[in-house]
Amino acid sequence: MTEPKTAETGSLRAFLGRRQHPFKILGYTSKTLWLLAIPIVKNIAVYRFDIRGWISSYWPDIIMILSMLGFAVFRWLFVFYRIEEDGITAHFGPFGIMRKKVYFSEITSFSTVQGYVYRLVNACVMYIETNANSVPKTDLKLVLSEKSVDKIYSAVTAVSEGEVRYSVSPKKSEMLIFSLIFSSTVSGILLFAAFTYELYRLVGQELETQLFERVNGKITELDQKYLGISRIVPDSILLLGGLIAGGWLLSFVSNLMAHWNFTVTRRGGQLIMTSGLITRRRSVLSRDKINYLDIRQTLLMKLRHISSVHVCCTGYGVHRGQSSALIPITTNYEMTASLRLIVPDHGRHHVGLRTGKKDTARFIVMPVLCCFVPVAAGSILKILLDRWHSEINILMLVSTLPLMWLVAVKAMASRLTSVGMTGDTCTLCYCRGFEYHKVIINTRNITKTEVTQSFIQKFGGTCTLKIYTDSERRKVHKISKLNYGELMALGWEQLKVPEV
To answer: Residue 397: what pLDDT?
Structure first.
């Protein structure tokens, strides 16, 4: 038989229902709390569970721990929220005197993150962002129970309730295979591992050779010490390289797990994303508040017609462990079909000005010159040391490979770099580092345009176009080596931004 609900129990439930999950109390405690608490608790056994003797010995530490917990509970009590008809009002600070209200109509992104530990206690972290602040600061962040988050989620998505749904979900097998083959992280691990191993061999041989030159038939006490160093130093290099490569690999696996079970749904004026295997994520974006789309490719992805699509919307993909992916990785054909389905309002893409074969030299001259740096450095080393020529040659080769790859990347970029406008849509294609970007921006989201010319560019009749957009921080898209006269003839005054 259930206990009848009284006014007292109902008030207590309402009181707790408007506050964060009790698990948040641990987040308000000092990070050093456990350094004090664990040894104190362990010492109970030393006192044979004599609580009185235990307290008399450790009472200052116990009072300190209880004070930390008490202050954490105090903070937790005075952080509360209320769901209203047009938004969410939250109170912070001492006695809840600081008040913040976020209107549903102004929300750019709503996100929830639930890790494994939070899942055990039925809690998750909720982020709500707006365009109110152009600084990297969350408008509203709360740790709430799953039930409370579902209520807020229903209130945020009520505007699109009952609308037609269009969903896209990348194939898991394709995502795994494409990530393994085309990820720059994996290729970076292999290259770094080769470099580290050769450095390990070179340093190890150097120390051992110096040792034997000192021995002269008899190992002294100093030589015994040096022998230990000759073993420790190269092993340390190998260990450090392994740790760095392992960190990269862990990052790659975490990225893959974050995109596992990824689904994006267009429902009315909102995009709803769910993803994650170990850490579950759910996001809601307002389509009319998306700043731009960013289609990304590496050189191998470009050759094999593979792409990933990221979206810039204030608050999305900026928190720890969160990605800004709209389509993690798929074929160009499926990517185009998916974009037409989930973001049809981004219009057609038109190229008005493009670099070409005649511009290749301008794109590759600096990367080609950089290729000679490892060669020159290695040649000097061989002259100075007069030994280990084969090892130095391998190091030179491993160091030069990324630069040679950059030459190929920039050569392809000379055929791809372009700008164009169609109606209210601006399309920018450029290369940054080893990655190609195709950015599609609605002109209303452009805050500034700028055309610059260096002395060399003036001599060659080229320029650099900079397009600025604002989100948490100002973002600049740089398209270099464009023909100045042709760019000016395109009529960039149509962007309705400050004059170039």
So the answer is: 75
